[in-house]
Structure formats: C-alpha cells, structure tokens
Amino acid sequence: MNRPVEPTRRRAIRAILATFALLCATPALPAALDGDYHAVVDGVATVLTLRTDGDEVSGDYREGDLRFDVRGRFDGQRLDARLLDAALGLPLARITGGFGGTHLDLSIAASHPLTGASQTRQARFTRAGSAGETPSPSPPATAAGGGDLDPAIVGTWVHETQINSGGRDFAGFATVRTLELGADGQVRQWVQSAGGGSDWSYGSGGPELELQGQWYADGGIVYVRLQGQAQFAAATRYRLVGAYLVTENVDGRINWRRR
Asked: Which of 90, 119, 159, 165 is at a distance of 20 to 30 A from 181, taking alpha carbons?
C-alpha cells in the first residue's frame, strides 16, 4: 500500500516543480541582447557586436576603420560598457543606454587618453535584420563613375596648427595640412611640419603625401575611396561657414581655408 504524501512534503514538491517550469519557460534575459547592431555615427557606418555571459557583456565596436573591444554589463534593461583600445586595452569611451528589444539608444562619451578632452554623441543602434534597421550610408548609383562632386568645395584647402611652450625653454611646432579636392574626382592630402627651440630644430623637408584616392559628396558627407581600396567609405561631414570649409569626424573638427 502506498503511503500518503505529507502536506508539507507535497507543498515542497509543488514549489520545486513550479520553479523548474519557470526556469524552462523563461530564457535568461541578458541573452536577448546578443547580436549585431547598426547605426550611422557622425556620418560613419558603425557596427556594435554584443555577446552576453550572465550580466557580463563583451564584443566589439567598429566605426569605419576604427575598431574597439567592448567590455561591460547589462541588467536586462540598460547597457553600461567601455570601449577599449584593441591592442593596449586602454579605456577610450563609455557607452550607456537603454535596450528596446530591437534597438539600443546609446550615449557614447569619448575622452582623449592624454589631454582628457571629452565628446559625447547620441545614436540609435538597431539590431541587424529588424524592420527598423538603420541603413549604412552607401554611394549613389553613379558613385562607380566618381559620384556627384560639390562644386562649392572643389579646390585646395589649408589647415595650420601652431603649438608653443612658454618659459625659459621656449619651443614651437607648426603643422600645415593641404587638402586638394579635384574637379576630376581625385583627392590628395599632404602634411608638412617644422619646429624648433633654443637648441634644436626640426623640419619634415617638404610636404609628405598622406592620402590619395577618389571622392564625391552626398548629403553633406564626403565619401573617399583610397588608392588600392575597392569601395567608397564615409570620411567626414562638411559644411561651408563663410570662407571656411568645416569638416567633422571621429578625429574632431577642422577649419580649412581656401588657398
């Protein structure tokens, strides 16, 4: 004859079964974050890849040619992570924001590791394959033949920087960059530097070619295909302010004067 199960024991068995059913039916919430998320940050196609292990998050962040490791935490609603230099492991930026199931609304706070200068940007990253995925900037149909050139910025532009140190050991260093946006769709950029102090001097010996390739403009963005590369990529946002060409990208803002 089977013995009846005591009431206390019966309640314990029910609790165990209910807990087991709940665990089987409900996936670990952080795992819903895993995947590739796309955005356009300052005119540059950007991909954020995230993987979760419990509440810990890892992955990588690719903004144009830049790549950073991602390390942080996700509590099921908000992501809080750091962007680290892939080679040195130095923290360069912090990304924080809420998770909306198919997207992340992120604040990207970047700081220069030497000067401490900071910049904060906002972007919505949408999961790859979802209905609201943000398309990457792509060349128009005519881009294969050089694209559309903005005649307002065709020409040669110059940007100069000067750094001086005070005190008894005065020293100065100047850098001149020259950007040529050709009417034939060619782009070239040169740099020349010189400096000196009380007992030293330096000169680059003439302009050095930094880059060359092809360019076109679309929607306030300059796209460049460097020599030897197969595709155009967003290089910088731009606008004309008076007599100056102002460009802005992940490296900051530059004011160019026409030569």
From this structure: 119
Three state DSSP letters for 139-194: CCCCHHHCCCCCCCCCEEEEEEEEEEECCCCCEEEEEEEEEEECCCCEEEEEEEEE
Q: Which helix (H) or strand (E) holds 79?
A: strand 78-85
- What value does the mean pLDDT of the chain take? 77
Separation of alpha carbons 217 and 152, rounded Å: 11
pLDDT tens digits along 97-132: 999 889 999 999 876 554 455 678 888 999 987 655
- Count other Cβ atoms within 10 Å, centred on residue 234: 23
Structure tokens at 41: 């940050």
Q: Name the residue with higher pLDDT: 203 or 121.
A: 121
Letter string b/e over residues 65-95, b meaning 16 or more CB atoms within 10 A of that residue's CB: eeebbbebebeeeebebebbeeeeeeebbbb
Q: Are 18 and 105 a contacting pair, CB within 8 Å?
A: no
Q: Of 46, 93, 97, give the one whose Cα is nearest residue 75.
A: 97
* Digit-coded pLDDT (tens) for 161-177: 887 666 666 566 788 89
- For residues 101 and 103, what is the distance between their CA atoms, to the nearest angstrom? 6
Q: Which domains, ranges and CATH numbers included, belong to the chain?
A: 29-127 (2.40.128.30), 143-258 (2.40.128)
